[in-house]
Amino acid sequence: MDEWKPNPAIKPHKKRSWYLAWKYKLMNQRMLRKLCQTGAVLFLLVTVIVNIKLILDTRRAAYEEEEESAQDYDDELLNVEVPRHPVSNKKVLDVEVYSSRSKVYVAVDGTTVLEDEAREQGRGIHVIVLNQATGHVMAKRVFDTYSPHEDEAMVLFLNMVARGRILIFTIKDEGSFHLKDTAKNVLKSLGSQVAPFLSWRDMWTFVGKKGGELYGEKHAKSPALSTWGDPVLLKTEVHLTSVEDAECHWPDTELNRRRKRFCSKVEGYGSVCSCKDPTPIEFNPDPLKDNKVFDVPVAVIAGNRPNYLYRMLRSLLSAQGVNPQMITVFIDGYYEEPMDVVELFGLSGIQHTPISIKNARVSQHYKASLTATFNLFPDAKFAVVLEEDLDISVDFFSFLSQSIHLLEEDESLYCISAWNDQGYEHTAEDPSLLYRVETMPGLGWVLRKSLYKDELEPKWPTPEKLWDWDMWMRMPEQRKGRECIIPDISRSYHFGIVGLNMNGYFHEAYFKKHKFNTVPNVQLKNVESLRKDAYETEIHRLLGEAEVLDHSKNPCEDSFVPDTEGRVYVMFIRMEQEADFTTWTQLAKCLHIWDLDVRGNHKGLWRLFRKKNHFLVVGVPASPYSSNKPSSVTPIYMEPPAKEEGAVAVPAVAAAEQT
Amino acid sequence: MQKINKNVVLALLSLTSLVFLLFQLYYYKFYLSQKNGAIFSKIRGSQSGQDSTRWHVVRKFLGLIASHNIPVYLIDPLILGLVDKDIEQIRSSPDGPSPECKYFCAPRDFTTFALLDKTWKHEMGLFRTAEKMGFQWLKIINKDPRLDGMDDLSGVEIPLHYIFKLASHAIHLVVFYERSGNYLWHGPLRLKQHMDRKFVPFRRLHFGRYPGAYEKPELLLVSIDDLKVQIPKNPSNFLEEMSHSRFLECRYREARAFFQLYPDDASLDAVEFRKKAKSLLHLAALTLNNLGVKFWLSSGTCLGWYRQCSVIPHSKDVDLGVFIRDYKADIIPAFQKAGLPLKHKFGKVEDSLELSFQGDGDIKLDIFFFYEEDDHIWNGGTQAKSGKKFKYLFPKFTLCWTEFVELKVHVPCETLQYVEANYGPDWKVPVKTWDWKSSPSNVQYNGVWPVDEWDDVIQIY
C-alpha cells in the first residue's frame, strides 16, 4: 500500500521521468502492467472513500460531543424569553374614561386599567396616575369624597404625585358632598375647569397632566336632587414624552438606580421620588454594642398594602442594630407593588401563592413564612416576626438584644413580644420595665425555633380550618402555661387602619392611643428578675411594698388613685376562679384599655400605671397573690351591664355597701 | 489516447489521495489538541509559560477576593490531590517558601474555589474590581431550593456559580449554602438560553453537573507555591466526599399534587407519629454516622420521601437500608446505648440479615441489610413463626444525598426504580393494609431456615 502513496517532495518533472522509467520497465509485461494499473485505481478509489468516511465520522463525533455538553448544562426549562413589552414607538395614548352612577372604567390604548361596577362599593373619585413616558399605571386610588376627610387624603395624594405625570379622574355614584374648596382648588390647579362647580350627583371625567396641560374633561350635571347626572364617556389622546424627561437626574449610584427603578413604576410615596433632595432609602442607624440579635432572621409578613409596607420598612431599617441582610419580606400573593417597595430598600422579598381564604389564608401565609425563614437561616435559633402595619421602635433590637437570652434559657417562656396590650398613653410609663404575661400579644415578637419546629409547625391549623393563627397560638393546647415577656411601653406601634380584622373605628378605639417608645438605647432594668422563680420573688416584693387603695371609692374614677408619682398601689377585685374575668373586663372598659378579651395577666395579676404610679390589680381569691390582701379589704365586684340595655356599667362597689 | 487517459486518472487519484492524507493529518492534529484541552489557550507558548499563567491567574484572583474580604477556600480536586500527597509537609511548614511551582502550575483548565454564601453579600464592587483587573466573569443564578417545600413560594434567584476568566485560565467559584440538616449544598450549573456556551469548556468543570451536599469542612490556612490559601483540613476526606456528593431535591411539586388527591392526615395521632418518627430517624442517623455505617431510606420511609416529602403517618415504623459489606458488630450495642433496645434479629450476616430496634412508644426501627449480586441487589425477610425466608429483589442502584425531616440522608439515586421494584407501578396510591410477605411486587419465596439454625436466625426479644 505504501509504495502507491506518491511522494509529495518530488517535483513535477522529476515525477514524470520516474514515471517514464517505470513505464519502460513494465512495457513488455502488458498483462502485469494492466493488472497493476487496475489494482492501483481500485486501491486509490477505496482510499478516497475511506478517507471521506473517516472525515465525516470524526466530524459527527465532534459535533455530538458538543451537543452533549450543551445538553448537560442547559437549563431544563427552555423558557423562551418573550420581550415583555414590545418596543413601540408610539407617541400617543388613547384614553377612555367613563363615569356613571353604578359603573366607572378607564381604558388606556384599549386596555382596561380600571373597572368598577360593584354595588355599594367604590363610591367617590377614582384617580389613576400614568407614567408620562411609558403610559404605565403607577397608582390607582379611590377617595370616597361623599364622606368627610377623604378629600384631605386626596389632596395629600395629589400633592405627592410628581410633576409631569398624567392624572385621570372619574366619579362613581357621588363625589362632591364632602369635596371642600381646598380640594376643588387643587383640581382646578391641575387644569380642571369643572371642578370648582362640581355638585351633588354630578358625573365627571377629567384627564390632565400634573403641572399643566388639560387633555380632556367632560361633565354631566345632575338635574335634580334625587337623580344622577347622565353617564359621561370621555375619549381623548395623551402625548407621551421621552423617558429622559420623565426621570429625575440623580447621581448614578447603586442606591439611585434602585430609586429610579421604583419611581418609574409607582406613585404615591412622596419625597422618595423627588428630583431635588429625595428622602434617603438607606438609613445607617448606629450599630448596637454587643448586639445579640444581629444574626436573628427577621420575617416581615405582608399582604397587598404597599404603602404600609413602605412605612414599616422605613422604621425597621432606622432601628438601631438592624441587620438588613437578615430581613426577608414575605408577600401573600403575586402583587407587584409590595415587591417594588422591598426592592427599593434592597431587601429580599418572597412571594407566596395564596392558600385558602380570610383568616386561614393569613394563617397559611404565616406558616409558609416561618418555615421558609428557618430554611433560609438554618442555624438561627430564633426568628423575629413582624407585620407590615407596624412601626418599629428605634430601640426595638436593643430591647431584644437585652432580653433574648431569657428565651433561650427559660423553658417557661413562650415568646418575647414588643407589644403591651394594656400599654396605652395613660397606662404605660416606664420604658425600662418588663413584664411576664400569660397571653401572647404578637405584633412584633420573637419565636424560638424549637417551639416552632417541634410543636407548632407539625400541627399548624390546616387550610380548611378558618382560624386565626394568633388565636390558635393563644390556646392552652399550644401555650401549655408558658408566658411571654413584654415591655411596659410597646416597642411597636400598630398603625394599620385597613385590614382583615381592622377598621377605622376599631383602630381609633383600641390602637391609636397606644404608647410607643421613641427613646433610643433604653437600658432595661432587672432583666434577670424576669425568670420564672425570680419573677415571683419580685412580685411578692412589689406587693409587700404596695399601698392598698381605698376600696370604698369607685375604681373608675380618677380620684381612686391619689395624685402622687412613683408610688406602688394595689387593688383587689373579685375573681372566683381562674377563668372569672367579670370584674376585670368591666374595670378594663372603664379604664379605656383592652377589654375585648383578657390580656396582660399573670396569675390573676395585672400591672399597669395610673397617674405615673405603678398600679397592681389582684383577682381574689383565684390569684395566688390573694394572700397579700389585708383581711379588712373586700375585693371590688363590678357587674356587667344588663344585656338588653347595653348601658354603661355602673360599678357596684361592694365594699362601700358593706361599710 | 486510452493510455494517456489512464495515466491522467492515475495521477488525479494519487493527487486526491495525497490531499486527503494531508487533510487527515491536519484534522487529526486539531482534534487531538482540542481533546487535550488546549483549545482555550490562545497563546501556544512554552509549557512553562502556560504553567506560570495559571499561577498568576490564581494569585490575581486571591488578591481580588482578599481586597473584598471574601473568605474562599480551595476545593480543586486536582490540586487537592497533589496537596494531599505532601499534606504532612505542608502542615508542618505553613510559611516555608516553595522552591518550585508544584501545585498551582499543574496543567488544568480551571482552579476551583468554594465560597460560603452567608459570609458574603456585597457583590457589586467585586465585579467592578474584577473587570478592572482584566477578568471576564460569568454568574450563574437559579432558584433557591431552600424555598422549595410544601408551600408555593417564589423569591429572587440566588447565585450558584461564578466563573472568572483571565488569559488562558479560569477560576470556578462554587457558592455553598447552608441548609437545614446542618450541611452545605451547592447547586447545579445550568446555562440559560442567552448565555455564552463557549465561555469555558463547561463539560470539564468538576462541580456543577449535579447539585451536591457536603459536611461543613474544617479549614486550614496553608501556603503553597508561595500563595496563602484556605484548604479543607483533610483533603483526602474532602475528595472522598466529593466523589459521591450528588444531591437530590425532594419532589415537592409532585408531593403537592399527591396531597391534592389524597389530603394529608392531620389527626393528632398522625402528628404524634411523625414527630416520633422524625426523632427516631435523627437518633438512628446519629448512631450510624458515628459508627461510620452508610445507610439509606428504604421501604416505606423511602416511599414517603419520594411520594410526599414526609413520613407516611400510617407506616408505623422507620426503615433503613445498609449494605452488608458495611455491617459492623457494634451496631447492636450502639443502638442499645442510644436507648433503642434490639427487638428482633432475623437471619445472619451471610444471609438475609435484618435488625429491628424498639423506639419510643410503639414505633420500630427496621434495618435491612442488602446483598449485592452481579445484576441485582436483594435483602431478605424471615417469618418468625414458620421460619420461612423471603427475598426482595431490587435493580442495582447508587446512593445520593437528600434532605428529609431536617436531616441529610442517603436515598437510592434511582429512586423511581427502587420504589417501583418494591411497591409496583401503583406506588402513587396510598395503601393502608400492607403485608410484607405478599404485598411487595419484588418478593420471592426463598425457602425455609433449617430448624437447627432457628435459635440463631430468629431472635425475638
Automatic annotation (TrEMBL), chain A:
GO biological process: protein O-linked glycosylation via N-acetyl-galactosamine
Top-rank taxon: Eukaryota
Domain writeup: The stem domain mediates specific interaction with beta-linked N-acetylglucosamine moieties of O-glycosylated proteins. It also interacts with its product, N-acetyl-beta-D-glucosaminyl-(1->2)-O-alpha-D-mannosylprotein.
GO MF terms held by the record: beta-1,3-galactosyl-O-glycosyl-glycoprotein beta-1,3-N-acetylglucosaminyltransferase activity; carbohydrate binding; manganese ion binding
Lineage: Eukaryota, Metazoa, Chordata, Craniata, Vertebrata
EC number: 2.4.1.-
Keywords annotated in UniProt: Disulfide bond, Glycosyltransferase, Golgi apparatus, Lectin, Manganese, Membrane, Metal-binding, Phosphoprotein, Signal-anchor, Transferase, Transmembrane, Transmembrane helix
PANTHER family: PROTEIN O-LINKED-MANNOSE BETA-1,2-N-ACETYLGLUCOSAMINYLTRANSFERASE 1
Subunit description: Interacts with DAG1 (via O-linked mannose moiety). Interacts (via transmembrane domain) with FKTN; the interaction is direct and is required for normal location in Golgi membranes.
Required cofactor(s): Mn(2+)
Protein's recorded name: Protein O-linked-mannose beta-1,2-N-acetylglucosaminyltransferase
From TrEMBL, chain B:
Compartment list: Membrane
Pfam family membership, one: LicD
Keyword Transferase: no
Keywords associated with the record: Membrane, Transmembrane, Transmembrane helix
GO cellular component: Golgi membrane
Key word tRNA processing present: no
Residues annotated as domain LicD/FKTN/FKRP nucleotidyltransferase: 292-329
Signal peptide: none
Chief location: membrane
Membrane topology, record value: Single-pass membrane protein
Domain Ribitol-5-phosphate transferase FKTN N-terminal: 1-278
Gene Ontology biological process terms, A to Z: glycoprotein metabolic process
Membrane spanning stretches: 7-28
InterPro entries (alphabetical): FKTN/MNN4/W02B3.4-1 (IPR009644), FKTN_N (IPR045587), LicD/FKTN/FKRP_NTP_transf (IPR007074)
Classification via PANTHER family: FUKUTIN-RELATED, RIBITOL-5-PHOSPHATE TRANSFERASE FKTN
Similarity comment text for this entry: Belongs to the LicD transferase family.
Protein name per UniProt: Ribitol-5-phosphate transferase
Encoding gene, per UniProt annotation: Fktn
